Amino acid sequence: MSNDVPLWRAADVSAQDVDQLVAALDVPERVARWLVARNIRNVEEARRFLFWREQLSDPFAFHEMRQAVDRIHRAIREKETIVIVGDYDVDGVTASAILASELDAREAIWHCVIPERVNDGYGLSVDLVHRANDLGAELLITVDNGIRADDAVAAAIELGIDVVVTDHHEPGDSTLPTCTAVVHYTRHEHPEDAIVLSGAGVAWKLTQAMEFAHPRTPATGSNQLHEDWLLGLTALGAVSDMMPMRGENRRIVREGLAALRRCQQPGWLLLCERAKVGERELSVTDVSWKIAPRLNAAGRMAHAETAFQLLMAKQRREAVVLADEIERLNVNRRKATEEAATEAIAQAAIHGADGRPKGIVVSGPWPLGVVGIVAAKLVEKFGCPAIVFSDLDSQPILRGSGRAPGGISLHGIVERCSQWLHHFGGHDAAIGCGIERSHLDAFRAAFQTAIETAAAMQLAEQPKAGDSAATEPLADDYLPLELATLETLDWVARFGPYGPDNEPLRFFLGPISISQVTPMGNGSHLRLRVAEGAVERDLVWFHVPESIAVRIERGRDYAFVVEMSENLWQGKRQLQLRVIDGWKLSGSLSRNDFADVYRSLHQSGRLQVPQAHSTADGDDPTKLGLILDTFVELGFAACAEGAYHVVKSRKRDLRDAHRYQLHLRTSMVSLRDDTAKDESNID
Fold first, then answer.
1. How is the beta sheet containing 643-646 ordered, strand by strand?
2. pLDDT tens digits, residue range 22-81?
3. Do 450 and 477 lie in a common domain?
4. Which residues are CB-contacts of 331 (< 8 A; sequence separation ≥ 6)?
5. Omega of the bond leading into 115 within 30 degrees of 0 (cis)
6. Exposure of 85 by Cβ count < 10 A (0-12 exposed, 13-18 middle, 19+ buried)?
7. Are 303 and 86 a contacting pair, CB within 8 Å?
């Protein structure tokens, strides 16, 4: 790690930008630094971000939105049969439920067809078109799919069925499907203002446009509960499909989750009950880890129709049966995933040098419904792109799913070696694909080459080693322990909801000493009592490797990166500081070292430079020089005419000085160093 890189992003922000935000927004200087560190410098943008005033985009800025709305309205007015074709993941199911709920509120004649993952595959197909035709479809609307379904759309037109495509996946190289309308977030009147939306988000914009152009009458359900439900479903889709959490998506998620906390839909309430989620305290984390996996389990292990029907259920009796079935499927999904992940990790380690492959392509007798989860687990463990294929029943075409770490375009990488694939589609973070069994080894090699090429291109565009931007800072800002308070937490909460492009704020704590170490749970978690001067706080470190836990010593100085969150216990609101990473500080200067030198300088009035850098009293001249130069940077002292002297200055923290930050960095010894070695031996 380059030693000249500041430890936190806020260290390099423009003081002028910070002062401007402080004056305009009347916020603490520290909060303004966080905004600028996130590249939010414009006053209006900062006001919208911090005070939750993001604007909603005009749905009619989408190309062909007007054609889509007018055709749907005509179908409703003339009592034509409308068939929705959705998808089997959470985004597809919620998109289907959004449009179905809107059509239902307008008393339209509608059916919803959701593909079955194994037999139908992803997206609109010719077979699904014929199924829609059998249902009497006169208008077919896709949600979360269809942008590449040229043949299927052509088949529908041939049968006399009009088609409206709404999607958010990457368009293919060929022309767009020829149909009544193609609504896609990239097809925008003002491309620079286009918002990256989920499939549910695009479907929601369609319902917004329908309401603006042809408002529902009170008799057909024009009420706030309905609007809240559509927005809540959109939030589920955005979180589950990991949409960028800036601008409109951020507002969708924040207000959508608030709407779901008020929601009385029987299916939603039972889903929360089975997931042990208090719906009134629903969070992004709850959606990601408890709600979405259950909705996904239906499509992964059986048929997503179960999840769709649960969301659409109007009676509790009906919803109970569906919720119980989803819970059963989720248990099966967890078991199948654990077994497949263990086998896939073993395969991946074989293909990578030192157990750390650059890219992973594996296959096995695993249910198609879990390969996406397994790919995500491989990414988490190995930190590289991964594609996992299901090899069941000796099918000639293996189907799979891929995931990639943030900052890597998996879609772009796969495009470079797509000649080996039978088909593929998706976006930067995730893809679905198929391959002939005989091409698997060749694709694995080509995938590695494509990753290396992409990495080389990215490296060429990055600063060289030694440049101040060559290494990422560890945190957003430092945090004095005395400011680890509920008041600070309230400001931190204003930066949420968190997600891609808006990761949780992280803070550097240190140097701090540990006075108490308390194991929690089964011993895999730790509670650390830490002190900074007279101030003490508790840190919580979840899932601490044993090799780290045994090396933590009381009385030593450490540094930690933490996230702040709220912990409600028996109705009492408390601050929780959760450890993300930790370091032992070896040979670092203490605050007392700085205080001793400052007192000496203050008492003597001035120190000649040779005297200041002498080894008198056993002081290390290098460290003494560092202390004095830090004082100069902070404005506590000045060096003129060959001597240091005290300068009257406002109180500042040592960590505001770049020199002190760089000193801390050189003193930090990662607690994970030995752990990494242990893990590589296991692999």
1. 606-608, 643-646, 637-640
2. 999 999 999 999 999 999 999 999 999 999 999 899 999 999 999 999 999 999 999 999
3. no
4. none
5. no
6. buried
7. no
